[in-house]
Design a protein that fits this description.
2 domains, mainly alpha, 73% helix
């Protein structure tokens, strides 16, 4: 009977780890809200990200520009995934080739 219960120890450990991560996430959300409440009373409307007064208007970026950059990133990322195995096979074939005399 003890050997059967011992098989569930990793499952129990994984469940405890999941509960610990969930508790840590909840604690970080609560601490973040508390810190934001304190920070807002100190800055009173200033930009929290840059901690500077906003001057003028920011540059606007179009959605199509962001999408095109994202599509290019995905395109080249997938290309590298297919290029790496090709390079390994090419190197292996080059090493097995007989030298030209």
């Amino acid at each position: 009977m003890d050997s059967q219960l011992a098989q569930y120890v990793p499952v129990l450990f994984l469940a405890l780890l999941a509960v610990a991560f969930a508790a840590a996430r909840r604690l970080s959300v609560l601490l973040g809200r508390w810190a934001n409440r304190i920070r807002r009373t100190k800055t009173q409307g200033h930009s929290l990200r840059m901690r500077m007064l906003p001057i003028g208007e920011g540059a606007r970026t179009s959605v199509s520009e962001v999408l095109s950059r994202g599509m290019l990133f995905i395109l080249f990322d997938i290309e590298v995934v297919f290029l790496y195995p090709w390079a390994v096979v090419y190197r292996h074939a080059r090493d097995r080739r007989e030298p030209d005399l």
